[in-house]
Amino acid sequence: MLQFSWLLLVLVFPLLVAVPTILVIVRNFENPRLSPIPPLVLIVAVSLWCLADAARLAVTGLDAKLALYPGYYLMGTVVVVSLFVFAADYTERSAWLRPSQLGLVTAPLLVSTGLEVANFRSWTIQSATTVTRNGVVVADVTWGPMFYLHHGLAYCFVAGAAFMFLTYETTNRHYRGQVWSIVGALTIPWLLNVAYLTGLTAFNYTSIGFAAALPVGVLMIFRYRILRLIPVARSSVVEEMDTGYLVLDRGDVVVDVNDRAAELLGIDPERLLGYDRGVLESTFPEVAAAFEGDSGFDTISRQEDGEERYYNVETSALGHGDDGTAPDTGSVVLFQDVTAQIEAQRQLRDQKERLEEQNERLEEFASILSHDLRNPLSVADGRLELARDEHDSVHMEKIAEAHERMDDLISDALALARQGQTVLSREPVSLDRVCRSAWENVDTRSATVEIGTDRTVSADDSQLTQLFENLFRNAVEHGGPGVTVTVGEFDEGFFVADDGPGIPEAKRDAVFEKGFTTSESGTGFGLNIVRTIADAHGWETTVTEAETEGARFEFTGVADAADTGVEVDSVADAT
């Protein structure tokens, strides 16, 4: 026999909100913030628990009522376990979700549920009769110890879930609304169950409490979108990082924010959550350009405490629609303070400008050396030749040697002035062509060069030519007029060797120092300039003994360049 009560309407009500909520959860299986299984099981279990209670209330026979109790017990167990799992997932306690640990924790509850359903030795229901209260026939049950033991274990799970939520809220205060709505939903059935167990109510309204709490859970899903994006399941790294972080859903509603973004925007984080992009743009108008730009990236500037600060604002879509283009799940916005980087770029630009000015002054100085000093020296040489025709004197020879010495000094000073110029123009350079050109520029007397490489490297053409000129001049100066110079290559770079007397091992490091020379006519700058040019290119310079027992200069770390049509100028006879 059946009966009707207004309580039946309350107990059936969860179906009205559970069905559309379940559909929303199922739709979010592809891009969930949390695992959708725990809340899905929780909602289904609450609905079935309420229906089991409604069926038990609708029948009037005692046997029928008692027959429906096992389903009521089972659904209650599913509710508390799924609630605990949902809390662990929500608050990032992944350790509790391991099968071994979760099984160990739930084992006592599952055993007590089995004993409760079986009513082992009447430990669950000791006696039961039907009574009429307020015109409704209900079961008046005398509960046994298993009933209270099972409830105690279930309370442990509920308390554990509440503890997870409350402690998580203290460290993630931006989501106070989410957490407290969950805790509030848990409080309703818990208070009603306590009232029944303590005898304050004659009817067990626990399932009705869950029926009332279910709309609160639905509110969380739709209001806070906790299943859609990632506003809670995030590590402390996001919260503590210096980059501002915002997440908007596909309706441009803010669903997540860290402290840095809230500080930058000057808006309380709780105020931002749940509001659309209009609030963001009204307080931070510059960010609109990043949203509207095709690249989703823009650099903006703001005045903060009298100082101009720069931020890179970058927006990225979270997932895509069915057509693969339109954002489907929302977007993430990052605000990165790049003031230090921009200031560093400014300093680099200023430094480059100063270097360019310095290079210009050095070039002017080089021009003076090469033209204004050499022109009078050329005139003096010409007059000296005329004087020799008229007067033959040993003093004329000394004057000629002095002029030659002055020309060498001018050449080395010119190279020394130009070595301070940074390598600014790298291009594919043929070693064969540069070597032949450098050999023609040096007074090599009767020396011979053998070029055994057709390698093309990435280098500054002018400075590489200067490097070979100095090496060739050094070989002729120390190896004698009949020295043979060899230019070759190996895997790591190239080398220049001669068959002269070589360089003693103890002096090989010193030869690159400024002013070091073993020749009475040398200036000591030639090899120092060689190393400076190599260093500017990023090459490493070493000096060893050649196979002919002469000197061998090796350059490693040399980058090859693709031959882009650089023509090798042919020199008829480089000897």
From TrEMBL:
It catalyses: ATP + protein L-histidine = ADP + protein N-phospho-L-histidine. The chain crosses the membrane at residues 6-26, 38-59, 71-90, 102-120, 147-167, 179-196, 202-222. GO terms for molecular function: phosphorelay sensor kinase activity. Its EC number is 2.7.13.3. PANTHER family: HISTIDINE KINASE 1, TWO-COMPONENT HISTIDINE KINASE. It is an enzyme of class 2 (transferase). It comes from Halorientalis pallida. Residues 237-286 form the PAS domain. This is histidine kinase.
